[in-house]
Specification:
Blueprint: E1 8-10, H1 13-27, E2 47-51, H2 62-76, E3 82-86, E4 92-94, E5 106-109, E6 118-121, E7 133-137, E8 143-147, E9 152-156, H3 158-171, E10 174-177
Antiparallel strand pairs: 1-4, 2-9, 2-10, 3-4, 3-7, 5-6, 7-8, 8-9
Amino acid sequence: MPGQSEPWIILPGVEERNAWNRFDREFRFRPSTRLDAPSPFRMRAPHDVYSVGTTTLMSDDRDLNGVMRGIFVQCMGDDGFMYVLDYQHTCFRYNPRLEDHHTYPVFIEDTRFGEVGGYNVYFPKFYPNGDYYFFLAADFRWGYLTHPWLQRAWVFGRRLRQLFREHADDFGFVAVMG
């Protein structure tokens, strides 16, 4: 796939369905709004879980967001993109090597929306601010999965886990299991 010139590209319908089908198949995703519900994912071993309730990533701190982008870049190797799935919202191909200069919301023209003519898009933050956000390698070999109500993040993939452990304090993440 050729490199993308924008930091994010909205997934076309077929690619989005394929990504979600694979995600559901591999992780058996079961969203819930109940705080006492079991884990919404069947996680592969090994993985780490962090409490993200005290994170500073929810701010627009460009330095910390840059660190997060850098972590993804280090894990990507030669991959041209990674997936960002936002449960029940717009999903993306994402290239963290490219800085996002968009002013949000971004209006996307789309004739499927009749007179309105389109919709607003918000690229997910690295903090689960009310939605399930999943940042995944294009081949799903590593990922950062967030839960909005539990304020938890699951991290899998050897290199990604190592980098998160190195930067957990910077982000205000607290390991809750390993």
